[in-house]
Fold this protein.
Amino acid sequence: MPGGSSDYTVWDKLDPPLPPFSVPPLSNRFIGIHASCISDNNGNSMLIVGERGYGKSTLSLELVNNYGYYLVTDELSIIHNRSNIVEPYPRPLGIWENNSECGLIKINVPATEVCERIADTPTVIKQIIILDKKMGHISSPLIKKLDNYLILKALLTQHINLGLNMGEAISTLVNLSVKIPSEQLIYSDFNHLREAADICDILFKKNINYRRKNDFNKKSQSVRR
């Protein structure tokens, strides 16, 4: 390297390296949530929150490849403090596949190999889906509206520290839980996620259209005044 050290480390991992969020200028700017995120072509996004192994990657992949959405990120959503803006971070997706020797195994695959569309600009969260995988048998996926405090509890459980002080982190999560339409998606089998993708797509588009109608009505009222 001209004018500097020639020492460097070859990055041989699938996951891209994370910047140092704990030091300036990035400290106290971002909050992390254990969630996937997909967006439409207008920059409106859906946050898919859930424990590891709950189907975030599977549901995201279904929405991206069969419903025209873009992958914003998988597993780690990086959100600006006191906002609903998500940075694109297209890390590898965990994909389940059948192995002749081990049965069903999860492998990490680069997003560029499995996603038809990948977002390259920040997006705005307009919908939150909280995954709840039940152990018992459920015939089909269910959607349940949650109270704000339960949404906040779910977000706090999946919070990832990215150098933001706890007070600011909680303020950001409270803002998301109160202002963003959120539903719990209950299912018991990964085969349900294809049907669940259809439900999520309908919910998301209905919510976006409702917001556009409200914005139009507010502008119309302002003009009349």
